[in-house]
Design goal:
This protein has 246 residues and is an alpha+beta fold. Strand 5 and strand 6 form a beta hairpin. Helix 3 runs antiparallel to helix 5.
């Protein structure tokens, strides 16, 4: 009888507190030296609350990450006074050759604690086969520095550009009618690896956000690129299946 009373009391305390309690109940008067440990758990306690809170935090973090990236891209694009075409031209004056890509991105701050800043990063393939990465200030067009990169796709790039008449500058200018160009890059493997090389261009525009385009190496035709964002709405633009750059 005493054992039942103790367990009932502990159970009630656990339900009120929303947690877990442990009771030591005697087995009765016949065996006073023996005890048994009973776990009393209340459903909906602290563990459930913690799990629910963690799930909510994860969802908030995911939304913040996605929205933060979009806001960062838009901020960089709106603050850049130097266009992609102008950045490529500046880089080529620093390192003559063929520009194969240009991207508006963030550059890490220096050791003195300066904050990261936006910068154009332009890759140039020189005549001797070396690759140069040139950094251009998007506010002034000034070259901030350059370094040599080791790349093993030189032959593929040259093969893709053979016979082409549209360079990175012209590709960026062609796509600029769709929005602010934030990157232009040579796709030497072609759409879905089909061997049809083209320039891949990303733009940002008000109301449409980020969009992907392909610019023909021979024709300069701008078509929607659905290989990255299959759900993008480019219904008002021509399809890229009819490119004449075979």
């Amino acid at each position: 009888m005493k054992r039942n009373i103790v367990i009932a009391a502990v159970t009630a305390a656990a339900l009120i507190g929303g947690g877990t309690a442990t009771a030591l109940a005697t087995t009765g008067d016949d065996d006073p030296g023996t005890t048994r440990q009973s776990d009393v758990r209340a459903s909906g306690g602290d563990d459930a609350d913690d799990r629910a809170g963690d799930d909510a935090d994860d969802r908030d973090d995911s939304r913040d990450d996605d929205g933060g990236d979009d806001r960062d891209d838009a901020a960089r694009a709106s603050s850049a006074k130097v266009t992609a075409a102008e950045a490529v031209a500046a880089a080529l004056r620093e390192a003559p050759g063929t520009a194969v890509s240009a991207e508006l991105d963030d550059e890490d701050g220096d050791d003195d604690g300066d904050r990261e800043r936006a910068v154009w990063e332009v890759d140039v393939l020189a005549g001797d086969g070396t690759r140069h990465s040139v950094r251009v200030d998007p506010g002034t067009g000034k070259v901030l520095g350059s370094e040599t990169d080791d790349e093993d796709d030189t032959d593929e790039v040259r093969a893709a550009l053979k016979g082409s008449s549209v360079d990175a500058v012209e590709a960026a200018k062609a796509a600029a009618a769709r929005g602010t160009v934030t990157s232009v890059e040579l796709d030497e493997d072609g759409h879905y690896g089909d061997g049809r090389a083209a320039w891949e261009v990303e733009t940002l525009s008000s109301g449409k956000g980020e969009q992907d385009w392909r610019v023909g190496l021979k024709s300069g035709e701008v078509t929607a690129d659905r290989s990255h964002h299959s759900g993008s709405d480019h219904s008002d633009d021509s399809d890229d299946s009819g490119s004449d750059d075979d």
